[in-house]
Amino acid sequence: MLTLGEGFIQHPANDTLRIALNTGELSKDAYFQQLLRLIYRLIFLFSVEERGLLHPAGDSKEALAARRAYAEGYAVARLRDLCLKRRARNRFDDQWQALRIVFKGLSEGEPRLALPALGGLFAVNQCSALDAASLDNAHLLAALQNLRWASHKGVLAPVDYRNMGPEELGSVYESLLELVPEIDLPARKFGFVGLTSEGSTAGNARKLSGSYYTPDSLVQELIKSALDPVIEQRIATQPESPIEALLAIRVIDPACGSGHFLLAAARRLAERLAQLRATDGEQTEQDFRHALREVVSRCIFGVDRNPMAIELARTALWLEGFEEGRPLGFLDHHLQVGDALLGLTDLKALELGIAKDAFKPLSGDDKEVCKRLAKTNAAGLKQLERDLKSKQTLLRFDDDYGLNALQALEALPENSTQDIASKEAVYRDFLGQAKENRLAHAADILLGAYLLPKTNDNEPKIPTSATLYLSLLTDELGPDHRQQLAAAQAACRDARVLHWPLAFPQVFSPRPVGEGMGGGVRGFDCVLGNPPWERIKLQEEEFFATRHRDVAEAKNKAERSQRIQWLSEGMLARHLFPQVDQSPNECEAEKRLYAEFISARRTAEAASMFAHVKGEDGGRYPLTGVGDVNTYALFAETISQIMAFSPLPLGEG
Q1: Are residues 107 and 122 in contact, defined by beta-carbon separation less than 8 angstroms?
Q2: Beta strand pairing call for 300-304 and 335-337
Q3: How far are the Cα atoms of 194, 202, 209, 545, 564 from residue 549, in angstroms, in the given order?
Q4: Cβ atoms of 303 and 336 closer than 8 Å
Q5: Measured on CA atoms in the order 207, 211, 216, 220, is the torsion positive or negative?
Q6: For the segment 27-69, what is each residue's pLDDT rounded down to a tens digit?
Q7: 3-class state of residue 117 by DSSP
Q8: 383-411 confidence digits (pLDDT tens)
């Protein structure tokens, strides 16, 4: 990663890349993400080449010639030994140009090299800045040596990508997801805070070490105890149509990371599906891969706060479910970026309005503004309660809210990159329509009330139960309430709020009779995972670890608090290094960092406040939202709510 990142920045032909990084057109994070995708592309190619799956089947003269041309001039396999030869590491970029041809071929298809059109990871929008840049052989081959060869006691051995499972890759690359890139354009250097610079990674040690990663032995035990009984029960319930019964099973990991649990679940479901389809009891590897692709497209779901974790999970599922001659499947509607703990699991919570807790002062809030908003909210709550009790209004929660659109999406074929593009277009249309759904408006208004800062300047933008009431019961909001809705939507977007019934309407809409559980059932059939065990509280040391080492490395809390105060005044560097002149820009940068800190702390406080709302007030966590809340407990209650036949209706307990 470091070698590639520096190689692109240093190449003399890459002025366009450097200008984009300098102007901010390409952010450091976006550059880092493209580097990650490049590595995923290489790993994908290593694996499918060694497994003999890259080229479509065919033994015609043309097909054989195309495969030979690829193997001799373009295959990444030919670089395995070449990357060890010092003379090959030169300033030319012919090896990178060959890779660019391969990537383009896998995006669009290239018959002359027997390359199928896969799209997905190889689509033109995945690594656009790097695809247009140059990379010399020295940096490319040095990076490939790190990917293709492992050193044990000084002895090099080739990495076996043919038999390496994606979960093994995940344990390594998941540790990259917490890294913060840094770029020094004048020096043409690329690195990571705390690894290549004097920054600190204190507080991130467990994340950087990959020790959040669950051992495969524990994953398999959970598959046996949680998923296997569901499979057998579903097949036994529908003996006349066991295949459809199995494909109707919905499995999710609400904190999926790199997809370890999802891969294991997909494999188990695919094994059983291939068995059911084997008429003579014999199964081929191709039968299993076909079953796996189908299971991934129909049964597997995942959520994670980290966008790159979702990308890694998607890549792992693509790699595992790859089938010759078919493009990489469309998974965006099944794998979603979002905070599984922040949002609604039951839309009927909207009937109870916005709880008074939403207007308790948090960091940076004005207490008088909070009082005024609480008073307005109380009036809105009374109006909502009065109208509902008198049945003057009827809130409808049985609307389709996107179900028909997603059902149509699920039914579309995936036999070509054009089919995948059609699915992407349909999904974009769905997302656009979903934003204008009145239930989505109301749900964002409810969460936005917790998340938005209550200041004098911001007061007109803060929604209350009156706003929620109007969004539910009228077709058009007035200008003031539209402003509040827009602010709430922006706050929810920044906090990655996830409303489960709206994110997955195909799961939370009543099922038809005949899916093994009777009609009207909503929710997932099996929830797998090992959620993070953390407090919902911003850890100052961890926050500043990758942002300002002078704050993170304070000796104790008192000293850190003092330094944060100086940061707010733009005076931290002046106090710590009085002999050094500080520019006005540096002072403003300190103030911006302080504002970022306050915003992050406030979001964490708002999430904690949301978790502590009582059940009778519409709270999502009546059982676990008490005391010093731990995310693991909240995940446990969330699982009970998103499972089919949830034992915890809203407000009970």
Answers
A1: yes
A2: parallel
A3: 9, 9, 20, 6, 12
A4: yes
A5: negative
A6: 988 999 999 899 989 988 998 999 888 988 888 899 899 999 9
A7: coil
A8: 888 877 776 555 555 555 666 777 778 88
